[in-house]
Amino acid sequence: MEEVLIEARSMKKHFPIRGGILKRQLGNVRAVDGIDLAIKRGQTVGLVGESGCGKTTAGRCMLNLIPPTEGHVFYRMPFDIRKRLSDLEEQLARIANNGGEGTSSEQIEQEIEEIESTYALDLKDTEDMRRLRQNMQIVFQDPFSSLNPRMLIRDIVGEPLLVHGVAKGEEMRERMIALLERVGLNPEHLYRYPHEFSGGQRQRIGIARALVLNPEFIVLDEPTSALDVSVQAQILNLLNDLQEEFNLTYLFISHDLSTIRYMCDFVNVMYLGKIVESASKNELFRKPMHPYTEALLSVIPVPDPDLKRDRIVLTGDIPSPANPPAGCRFHTRCRYREAICEEKDPPLEDKGGGHLVACHFR
Hints:
By secondary structure, the protein is an alpha/beta fold. Helices cover about 35% and strands about 20% of the residues.
């Protein structure tokens, strides 16, 4: 049984909308609105969708950089505890559906709270979370804005080592030099500033900073979208090599399905704060089932001028996450929509072989 390293359960992140003289809350932006996402050790799991669907917010919640509004992210939860938690949640749901209350539900809730307090990242105290930070890092989308322009590369890469008390002095310098060389940079680069590097070199610095504490889980937030195409391939190959060498687990966030296909073992398609399809890479690209995934895959460029394909053009704009449509969130742009789509939100269900889809007609 492969170990689930990190897992989001019913995770939501709503940002308040405030207005008026008293800055009263007028509503919420539902950036992430109830997703389940399990990542096994050693896997690269992709999170794909168009801009504004909540991918980056979900990634930052996975690291507890921003705490979820509801739900939890569990880290290193043993298999038997994970199964026990699922059983308890099912029991609680049955009691709620039957309208039952009382001692039994209180006991279940208490056991659930004990598990959450032990393994949920957002319930950790500051000191525990600081220690766990060594094991989980992030590589940001923009390699320039994520690096302090006033700091030397030596200080940028070495700061995590000092903060966590891992190394200092000559040991720290040797460790930084070895890591810079591993990502394709030179020792003399330690004494330069970020503006003296190209975009690809700055991203290599960001990767070195993420690796310096020997983490086991890294969120890659569109790490190549700001780079030239020729540099993108170099960075992707570097990330693959580093994953194998350091036994890393990745959450790879992107809007580029070609990149997702190259990098990922498992793919989750996100639309307006929810995951609408989830499957292994080969299964999803071979047989997309959700209408949104079909549309995304239909426009991937193919290097064959003679190949004729029917491109699915989505009409209209993505609805606002502050006021998502009732029922299925994709129905306003879906060519298969029926009356039920406007009334009932389809659950994410297994259609066979672990291929999960949220659609009434698939």
